[in-house]
Amino acid sequence: MSAVISPPITSKTPFFTMKGDHAAIRVPDFVACKQWFVEKLDFRVVHEWPYGDLRLAYVAPPADDHFRIEILGGGKPAEKPSYTDLADSLRLAGYHHICLSVQSVDEAVAELRRRDVKIVTEPFNLPAINRRLGFFADPWGNLFELAEVLPS
Q1: Which of 8, 36, 110, 132 is buried deepest, with most CB atoms within 10 A?
Q2: According to the model, what pLDDT value does residue 2 have?
Q3: What is the DSSP string of 95-128?
Q4: Helix, strand or coil, per DSSP, at residue 129
C-alpha cells in the first residue's frame, strides 16, 4: 500500500490559521433531523438558534468538540436525489459527502444497519489512500463517508 504524503505545513500564508469547523446540511424537518443525528449516530446537540424562518443547530460527534454539522431546518427546500450506490452519487456536481473517521468501518456499518440507517456502499479498501471506506445516507439524501486508516 502506498503512503499518503502531505506537503510540508507552511506559515507563509495568510490562511495559516485556517482549520475545518463545520459542514452544513439543509433539511425540511429540523426536529426529525436533530433526532436522527442523536438516535442514529449518537451525536450531541451543542447549540440551537433561529435564523429568519429557519431553525439551526450544531450537532457534534460523541467524542469530538472540534467538528460539527450545522443543521439548517424548516421551510420547503428542493428535494435531493436518493442515491442507490456510490457510482450513482458521482453523476452530479457540487457537494458530495461529509467524511467521519472511525476505528472500524465494518463495526460502524454493522451498527448503522442495526439502527436502520441506509447503507449506500458496503465497506471497501482504497489502497491509494490506505483507507477502508463505507458510505451511508440520512433520510434527506445527504451522504456520509466512514473512513478507517488501514495498518501500513
Answers
A1: 36
A2: 56
A3: --EEEEE-S-HHHHHHHHHHTT-EEEEEEEEEGG
A4: helix
Contact yes or no for 67/24 (Cβ under 8 A): no
Side chain identity at residue 39, one-letter code: E
Q: DSSP readout, 28-89? A: S-HHHHHHHHHHHH--EEEEEEEETTEEEEEEE-TT-SS-EEEEEE-S-PPPPPPPSSHHHH
Task: Output the CA angle 123-32-52, nearest 5 degrees.
Answer: 120
For β-strands 143-149 and 97-101, DSSP reports them as parallel
- Cell numbers found for residue 8: 510540508
Question: What average pLDDT does range 121-133 have in this prediction?
Answer: 97
Q: What's the CATH number where 146 sits?
A: 3.10.180.10
In this structure, is residue 5 part of a structural domain? no
Range of the domain at 69: 21-74
Say if residue 13's pLDDT is above 70.
Answer: yes
Q: Is residue 15 part of a domain?
A: no
